[in-house]
Specification:
The protein is 78% helix and 0% strand. By secondary structure, the chain is mainly α. It has two domains: 105 residues, Up-down Bundle (Four Helix Bundle (Hemerythrin (Met), subunit A)), CATH 1.20.120; 99 residues, Four Helix Bundle (Hemerythrin (Met), subunit A), CATH 1.20.120.
């Protein structure tokens, strides 16, 4: 009896521990990328338009150091599905930074100006690789991430029921979200995708109110698939 009770308490404690999700894990913020902006800004808005080659040379060590730091970054869990795009764009940035050094060594001012433009473009590409297209879609993803990677695998029913209702509210918020120009061009397709997402989220809420774990897992997969389809619309 006491052994069983001890085991039950241990399992409950482990479940609670496993479901603790840090703020950093569900944040798409990369501090090094923000630090990089502090260098890119004077490089692109001051040095480049004014042909200030001395400033371009002066800023190179910071650009190189931050690029090296980015290459050692481990993306937070919520960005795991962006890993390939991140690595691809980071490789382009790294290559352009090597050319930056080459242009400085060769005292090639034309080449230096061209490569600074390339560095800026590759930095922007890196930012776009991880930046959510809509804050409402990002908010939906944060809740879905917890469900998909924690609550469902752990069969944490209490957390799953609560989160599924929150997920439905986030889906409803997408229906009334203000669309950017980029999204407006695909408004009909976007609205259809949001409705599909909302419907699948509502079905998850319905399933989570019961005790059929297999059905819940199936509903979670459907929501996840619908979310990915909606997000890929902007790629």
């Amino acid at each position: 009896m006491f052994v069983y009770l001890g085991l039950l308490l241990t399992l409950q404690a482990n479940a609670q521990h496993n479901s603790k999700i840090s703020h950093e894990e569900v944040s798409a913020h990369i501090p090094t990328l923000s630090d990089f902006h502090g260098v890119i800004y004077p490089l692109w808005h001051d040095a480049w338009p004014n042909n200030n080659f001395e400033l371009m040379k002066e800023l190179y060590p910071q650009v190189r150091g931050l690029t090296e730091k980015l290459n050692n970054e481990v993306l937070p869990g919520i960005l795991r599905d962006k890993e390939n795009a991140w690595r691809e764009r980071l490789e382009k940035l790294t290559t352009s930074v090597k050319l930056y050094k080459q242009a400085i060594d060769e005292n090639d001012e034309t080449g230096l100006k061209n490569v600074v433009e390339e560095v800026h473009a590759n930095y922007e590409g890196l930012v776009r690789a991880i930046t959510p297209f809509m804050k409402e879609l990002d908010a939906f993803h944060v809740v879905l991430y917890k469900i998909y990677h924690y609550y469902m695998p752990e069969k944490n029913m209490d957390a799953l029921r609560t989160a599924s209702m929150e997920l439905l509210e986030k889906a409803k918020a997408l229906q009334t979200a203000k669309l950017s120009r980029e999204v407006e061009r695909k408004a009909d397709k976007f609205k259809a995708g949001v409705e599909k997402l909302r419907t699948s989220a509502a079905k998850l809420v319905e399933s989570a109110s019961g005790n059929n774990v297999k059905d819940m897992a199936k509903r979670v997969e459907t929501v996840h698939d619908n979310y990915q389809s909606l997000e890929q619309m902007f790629e």
